[in-house]
Write a structure and sequence with these properties.
Layout: H1 10-36, H2 38-41
Length: 42
């Protein structure tokens, strides 16, 4: 995806992609836990 990006600052674009990916990896398991485990324990 980065190699096909045209007309954008590559460093900034790369940091945005890394930030988005880190957010998904960090928040995804918490959301899954809150929907699957938390209701069963109440």
């Amino acid at each position: 995806m980065l190699s096909n990006a045209r007309g954008v600052d590559r460093d900034r674009f790369y940091k945005q992609i890394i930030g988005y990916t880190a957010g998904i990896v960090g928040i995804g398991p918490l959301l899954a836990w809150s929907f699957l485990v938390l209701p069963a324990s109440l």
